[in-house]
Design goal:
alpha/beta, elongated, Helicase, Ruva Protein, domain 3, 5-stranded parallel sheet, 10% strand, disordered N terminus, Rossmann fold, 10 helices, disordered C terminus, 2 domains
Length: 232
């Protein structure tokens, strides 16, 4: 089983530019919905998918285009109606990450406020609103009326394309079979690709090695080792 990354490599913050987003079958529909804005049939669009599927990148692409403020669902905790009114007045478009963790009444009031102001909400979560446990009927009905689109985890083709782009961005050359090996053995997320390619770059430079399958195996063993393996 692939292990999650267990330590911080000190990478610079990822860029979320449109040109850095690799389009594939699993995310094309979601990107089309974001491009369709502001011609959405409701004040909100729900964007869902597993961790590492590119939801945050898509959200930031849209935030840049819509001049949207980006917040987390938990940021609505404790917000009064006055607070929410000020937020809606200052932000004609809002991205809410982990939207399923937002307090229901806060999200309900914010939805209504954005609708009154002809604003837009992008609600990002791992599960679509139809699978949220919503106790407030009015909120449930509004979210049911909003379009929902899902992104799929990277398939082999997309993950390989992301790896190749990260290598090209660093002007690195990988030997035969390296990309296929990484696709078959690493965590399936764009963030993991960033960490792996950065580690390949550092280790190849420090040890004066070519980026071949042996180096790739060494890097993956280092990055994805379980705590028990590290202690042996």
């Amino acid at each position: 089983m692939v292990k999650q990354l267990t330590f911080d490599l000190g990478l610079p913050a990822p860029t979320y530019a449109r040109e850095d987003f690799v389009v594939a079958s699993g995310n094309r529909e979601a990107l089309a919905w974001l491009d369709r804005w502001p011609d959405w049939p409701a004040p909100a669009l729900a964007l869902s998918g597993p961790a590492g599927a590119g939801k945050t990148h898509l959200g930031r692409i849209w935030a840049g285009r819509a001049q949207a403020r980006v917040i987390r669902g938990g940021d609505l905790d404790g917000k009064t109606v006055a607070d929410l009114t000020a937020l809606a007045s200052a932000s004609p478009a809002i991205v809410i990450e982990d939207a399923d963790r937002a307090p229901e009444r806060g999200l309900f009031h914010l939805y209504n406020l954005m609708r009154e102001r002809r604003g837009s909400l992008l609600l990002i979560s791992e599960r679509p609103p139809a699978h949220w446990r919503i106790a407030l009927p009015d909120l449930a009905s509004r979210l049911r009326a909003a379009p929902a689109v899902a992104v799929a985890p990277p398939d082999d083709e997309l993950l390989g394309s992301i790896i190749l782009k990260q290598l090209a961005d660093r002007q690195l050359h990988a030997g035969p079979g390296v990309v296929h090996y990484l696709v078959s053995h690493m965590e399936r997320s764009a963030d993991a690709v960033r960490h792996v390619v950065a580690a390949l770059d550092r280790r190849a430079l420090a040890e004066r090695r070519e980026i071949d399958r042996r180096l790739a195996a060494d890097v993956l063993a280092e990055l994805f080792a379980s705590p028990s393996e590290e202690g042996e």
